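Reading a protein record of the kind used here takes only a little practice. These numbers are not coordinates but entries in a learned vocabulary of local backbone shapes. Here is one such record, which you should read through line by line.
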Amino acid sequence: MKKILIVDDEPSLRWTLKLVVEDLGYTAIQCSSGKQALSMLEMNLDISLVISDLMMPEMNGREFIEAKNKIEELAKIPVIMISGVVKLSEVSDILEKGVSRFIAKPVRVEELEEYINQLLE
């Protein structure tokens, strides 16, 4: 069973994303910061996808992507970035940094499911 890492500092959104991921038949692993996520990825090289918030304390989504992509084994793992910040320049910047898909908050479950299926097929 494929594993998906969910990274968000907001527990209620993590829980909602976990339910969506598990309803699709995947295993959900949760972290509350980019720093924790990076450690989790290094310990679990079998994680297939990351769903991450952009704005988080300690290490935000942009810093997480930059750190993840410096590690060869982790660079290939696709990332869906979620954010309430929807400036075109912000979205463009994170996509250039290696994010696979971007979803604006509030998250539409259908859009998230579609992106998960696209990236894991």
In short: The chain is about 45% helix and 20% strand.
